[in-house]
Amino acid sequence: MANSPSGDSMLDRLVRILDAFDAQNTSLSVQSLARRADVPRATAYRLLDELVSHGLLARDPDGQVRLGLRLWELANRSASTLDLRHAALPFMEDINQLLGQNTQLAVLHEDDVLVIERLSRPGSVINQANVAGRMPVHLTSMGMALLAYSRPDVLEGYLERHSETMFAQHPKLHHELAEIRRNGYATFDGFIDPESTGAAAPILDSTGYALAVVAVVVPRASELLPAAVVALQTAARAISRTLAA
C-alpha cells in the first residue's frame, strides 16, 4: 500500500485505528481516535468512512465510534481459537458449576495473556479478566503458568524483552517457574486484586508445551482453592486429549 509522507503505510494506519480501542476506551470521538492512532484528523475521517462501510467500525448516534460487529465475526472464524474454545467449554462449564466462580481460558499472545473465553457466575469474586482482553503475564497465574510451560525460545525471548518487569515482581523467577512445572499449576494471591487468588493449569500439546491455560479466580484464603486446583488440572488434561483427538 502507498506510504504517507511520514513513511507509514495505509495498512499501518488502519491497524493503529483499530488498535486504539481497549477495555477502557470502547468508544471514542474522531478527535480522540485520531490522536490515539497518531493519524491526521482529515485522514482519520476518510479511513473511518471506509471502515464503517465495511462494518469494521460503527458510529453511535452521538458521533462516537466503536469497533464493528464484523470484527467479532471475523475473529470467531479463527480455526485454532474456535477448536480450543469448543474443546474447552464443556469442561469450563463443569468447573464453573462446581466452584461457583468465574472461569476463563487464555493464551499467550504478543507478550500478553489474551483471554479468549470467560464464564461468569453471579456472586463470584471480583475478576478483571474480559473476553478479548489482555492481561500482564507477570501479574496473573494464567501468565505465569503459560510462561512456565512455554518453549525455551519463547521463554528466553520474553525474558529478554521484559526482564526488568518480571524480576521486579518475581525476584526468584526461575525458582517459581520450576515450582509451577513441578506442581503442574500456578496460584498467586492478590496480584491484581488484594482479595482474590488466581489459579491456572496449562493445556499442553503433544510435546508438553502450553497451548493455553484454564483458570479460575477464588476469594483469597478460600477453602475452594484445593478443589479448584484439582478441577483445573483434570479439565486441562481432558481438553488436551480432546484437542489431540
From TrEMBL:
Domain IclR-ED: 70-245
Chain ranges of the HTH iclR-type domain: 8-69
Pfam families assigned to the protein according to its UniProt record, in alphabetical order: HTH_IclR, IclR_C
Stated name of the protein: IclR family transcriptional regulator
Listed transmembrane segments: none
Keywords assigned: DNA-binding, Transcription, Transcription regulation
